[in-house]
Write a structure and sequence with these properties.
Strand order of the largest sheet: 1-2-7-6
Shape: elongated
Order of helices and strands: HEEEEEEEHH
Distance between the termini: 18 Å
Radius of gyration: 25 Å
CATH class of the largest domain: Mainly Beta
CATH architecture of the largest domain: Sandwich
Helix content: 25-40%
Mean pLDDT: 85
Strand content: 15-25%
């Protein structure tokens, strides 16, 4: 590989990183501009809608449908109103008002294996490939599955940093032990795969 192409690869990686950062910043700004905040797990979505202090549940008009969500103060324009990006289980979805200043909405996803790109279809989307599931949920997994997931996460991080994966590290370690045990052998031209 010539130096020119190696340099090109490095530059494109840096370009990718800065494009990635720019995309994340744009996404964060778009999300911050929404009249609510939201977070999700694979199985549910939680939304917090700020309302004027002193608001009571009777002052609110909240509609939660299979594919629709509307929140507003009675007699005023809705704060949010539209079609949900995916279907929900209406009977398991709830809303409450907290401290008379925020409406908390809990939506149970119908498909519990899918990340949502947005809450309402007409709102800006997030890049679901960048979602990092909360590590606390690793504790819900059995030991073997958890170890496998942690290994995959480690390998993914190593690859992103251009470092060897756990399997490659094991091979390198085994080779070093073998070299130490056989100092009479010459490994200077050995190709390891």
């Amino acid at each position: 590989m010539s130096e020119k192409s190696a340099d090109h690869d490095n530059r494109s990686k840096e370009d990718e990183d800065s494009e990635d950062r720019a995309a994340r910043a744009r996404e964060a700004a778009e999300q911050a501009a929404l009249p609510y905040t939201w977070k999700q797990e694979l199985g549910d979505v939680d939304i917090v809608v700020p309302v004027p202090k002193g608001t009571r549940s009777r002052d609110l008009n909240v509609v939660i449908g299979k594919k629709k969500l509307s929140v507003g103060l009675k007699g005023k324009d809705a704060i949010l109103d539209g079609e949900l990006c995916k279907e929900i289980k209406v009977e398991e979805s709830t809303w409450t008002i907290e401290d008379q200043e925020a409406v908390h909405i809990h939506l149970e996803k119908l498909n519990k294996q899918q990340w949502w790109e947005n809450v309402l279809t007409h709102h800006p989307k997030i890049d679901t490939t960048k979602i990092q599931p909360e590590n606390s949920k690793l504790s819900d997994l059995d030991g073997e599955t958890r170890a496998m997931v942690e290994k995959m996460m480690f390998d993914q991080q190593q690859k992103q940093m251009g470092k060897p994966t756990s399997d490659e590290l094991k091979k390198m370690e085994a080779l070093e032990k073998f070299k130490a045990a056989h100092p009479e052998l010459d490994f200077s031209n050995a190709k390891i795969s």
